[in-house]
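Researcher: Going back to the complex we discussed earlier. I've cleaned up the inputs and rechecked each line, so this should be the final set. Can you rerun the prediction on the complete assembly and write out the structure?
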Amino acid sequence: MSTPLIEMDNIEKHFGPVIALGGVSFDVYAGECHCLLGDNGAGKSTFIKTMSGVHKPTGGVIRVNGQDTVFNNPRDAMNAGIATVYQDLAMIPLMSVTRNFWMGREPRKGFGPFKWIDFKTANRITFEEMERMGINLREADQAVGTLSGGERQSVAIARAVHFGAKVLILDEPTSALGVRQTSNVLATIARVRKAGIGVVFITHNVRHAMAVGDRFTVLNRGQTHGTALRGEIKPEELQDLMAGGQELAELEGSLGGTI
Amino acid sequence: MKLKKTLTAIATATLAFAGLATASTSAQAEGENFVLISHAPDSDSWWNVIKNAIKVAGDQMDVNVEYRNPPTGDLADMARIVQQTAASNPDGIIVTIADFNVLKGPIEDAVAKGIPVITINSGTVEQSHELGALMHVGQPEYDAGFGAGKRMAAKGVKSFLCVNHYITNPASVERCRGFAEAIGTDLGDQMIDTGLDPSEVKNKVSAYLNAHQDVGAILALGPNSAEPTLDALRELGMNGAIPFGTFDLSAKIADGIKKGDIDFAIDQQPYLQGYLPAVILTNYVRYGVLPSGDINSGPGFITKDNIGLVEKYAGEYR
Amino acid sequence: MTDERLKQVSSLRRAMIRPELGAICGAILVFVFFLMIAGDSGMFAPEGIKNWTVVSAQFAIIAVGACLLMIAGEFDLSVGSMIGFSGVVIAILSVHMGWPVWAAIIAAFVVAMAIGALNGFLVIKTGLPSFIVTLAFLYILRGLTIWLSITTTRQTIIGGVKEAAKGDPLAFLFGGVIFKDLFQWFGEMGWVGTFTRGTRAGQPIVEGVPMLVVWAIVLVIFGHFVLTRTRFGNWIFASGGDAKAARYVGVPVDRVKILMFMFTAFCATVFATCQVMEFGSAAADRGLLKEFEAIICVVIGGALLTGGYGSVVGAALGALIFGVVQQGLFFAGAESSLFRVFLGTILILAVIMNTYIRRMITGER
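Model: Rerun complete. Updated structure for the full complex:
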């Protein structure tokens, strides 16, 4: 646990006159789940996109295994072992589980320019990986649209893990899910973490974060408000930090602590 | 199972509908089957007269004459229709030679199969003979344009505007070329491509006349171009002031001739192009009789002097 | 380990429920129907079969391109104009400028695919719907075609290609007829009718298999293989299904889409070249409305208009249905103006059924 898998050091991102990120620092170690909490508009998605190579930071340094690195495109980040599972863009529902699973990295066989997808292998591996995630597919070529939201997230996570992700960024994986599906996804996160992968879990739900997180960082208006270890901080405090302190505390009082 | 139910429902609906489509033509005559194939797109209303003519001929001779055309006027599609017609073994085919090169193969195949063919409307007598058709019934395009040009030349016309609404058919250009050569000029850019939409035709003609104040005469190639052109002239106040001739006839053109806004209409008498081949084919198939030589159904010139009877049947039989 | 709730799906049903199901049923239905009402009209005699095969093959050639492009999430409305344009390019270069026909054909393919690439490039770079961009090219190309042919030859129809193409190897590849000897033998055996008089007496009425049909079959097999079996095919699905999601996993969506625009242009040019070689002339009005006919075939074949879903085999069956209905109604003696009523009805029924099938497969709601 000496060097973090990825370290975002004082990252800034400006869109014209708008400062979306004003010096955010964040890191992930192998085998931990680091939760990034923030309200809507806090800059979470800009931060993820910077970490996964979609945006280039305006300022600051990204280090992978201690080395300064520049991501020119998502492919660079993927090659560095950083995989991102987006909330709604995880899967293409019209396509089969196998096709989704291998999209962009299809296994091929054949010779010369005549190469085709090795569907036998692809289907078998998909099936096995899904089983490891605790999902029983009817068949590997059933469409993703027939799966539930939680299962889709799990397919995306399984895909990332299979392709050697060292860091897994999960963008609000639980926000659109029901209770049962949420617990499935959280169980999956726990399983992945145990396998030695660093998980970045983005959410605005404190209870979900507390369930699996080892460390917690709160993002508010493009800045971090410090990082806390598990057990050092109470859910209410996190909630306060997310909302920028004061106002929510008052609001919470009037709502009788239901948020 | 729901899927099966849906399938059955769809199948039944399709069959029922198709049955309706075929039943509607069950009024077939007992006699011979002929097919008339034209090159005109669906939007060309001029062919109505020919459709009426084959109906009259069909009733009189107790034969069935079917009208077919490529919906968009695409001649390659027309060639397919000729092939398909030949494959259905009709007793005779009546076809326009819209383009000799394209239709040569299919028509020759039909002739080689032993199907009697009469060519009509577009094309020349020579082409008709080369294809092995029995005869040609039509109006020589270049000559018709030339004849119209001669009439204009007599008035001292030196330049003109050819309003072409079906420029993709080579016969249309022949008409304009004949006219141009009769008045002793080169066609050059005196022909405009207007398309079939009436308001577009009108606007293009107005624009051309505004840009070329010295245009000596106007030639329209049919009702589709003549009617909007007439509107344009009336709007510009140039009706009657500029010599205006057109091919073919319609109710509105007849009216224009009566009012003196249109000098003449070149009538190729389409009725004859539909009626005569049907009658001739029937007699040929039944009794083996065939008039020798080809038939020029036009040009006839319609002017203020002979408009009376023409007007009564314009768009129907004239 | 299996889930007991998913067990009741029989293997038959699984094999049945596929994107092409609607088109397969439609094709069977259409054949049965016409066998019943037009079975003795010559439609299923060799000449009649050749007839609807050729027409269907024409549709199939452009449908393959339109199908892959539609699955990649884009439209091309300039297909019809492209057919007219490529044909006129070949005719002008070979007849008017005196190029060898093979060079004219290659040039037409290069120009057409460059225009296809431009179409794709504009769609990608501007982010405008391909519907609009290619609609513009529908007009641009048609206008250019008329202008080109009028200014170089003073006509809108350019003949003489057949004479120029005599003995040209590439011309045969598009306009030739193969298996002539076989069909001659068929004729002698009496399986195919022969001409009874004239200069061609003794020759079979169907002289062989036109290259047009060969092209259609080759393109359908190629398209089906690429789409379902290759990595690139997976990218086509992904680009049309969700371009953003595809980009995030590293699929080169822009390249896929531009290539598909080029392939559509390629198919249109194959169509045009076959037509020019068969009829010996090119005309400025060739290919009118063909873009919609291609799209209709594709939609009957089960493809989703918004992309990401479809089948090349389905599109080919759509083309077959289209061709057989068009020809069959004539053989059945139906009023020809009713053809489009029938076609429209089939289209609606096909779309309803395909939507239903697709929902079963993909779990859409």
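Model: Worth noting: The longest strand of chain A covers residues 18-28.
Researcher: Good, that matches what I expected from the previous run.
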